[in-house]
What we know:
Blueprint: E1 2-7, E2 16-20, H1 22-25, E3 29-33, E4 39-43, E5 55-58, E6 63-68, E7 70-77, H2 81-93, E8 99-101, E9 104-108, H3 111-119, E10 123-130
Parallel strand pairs: 1-4, 2-6
Antiparallel strand pairs: 1-5, 3-4, 5-6, 7-9, 7-10, 8-9
GO molecular function: nickel cation binding; unfolded protein binding
Domain UreE urease accessory N-terminal: 2-64
Subcellular location: Cytoplasm
Amino acid sequence: MLLIETLYTGEAASTARLQLDFDARTKSRLRTQLADGEEVGLFLPRGTILRGGDRLLAQDGRVVAVVAAPEDLLEARCANAEALARVAYHLGNRHVAVQVGAGWLRIQADHVLKTMLVGLGAEVSDLTAAFEPEAGAYAHGHHHAERGATEAKIHQYK
């Protein structure tokens, strides 16, 4: 099994692809497969969240491109900015990962949230696409109170 423990920021071209949905890209320990079927073990620093376009350095020296896999999503659009802001507020209040675009919000498919969005007046569409939610206000990482009372706490996503 190929071992990957490091993010790569160098200039070398990628020679392999690792396609993962967003949930898998939030795991720092994962057994999975490259696009060609080769087994891979990810052992990244805890709290690492991979994004489509990131690159990893495998133990054998190969550079592996991370590809955001298409997944089932909901896209919400509203009649005006105020209504869209209201929808965003209610999703944020539920700590839902949200991808923001020009006039739309995307979330992972969830029938309960879809009902809520429709109830708030949003026009909701089902689609399949890569999911790249917002990094959040504290994009530098996840912190815990024991590291210092003055450090910000965030929940799941960086």
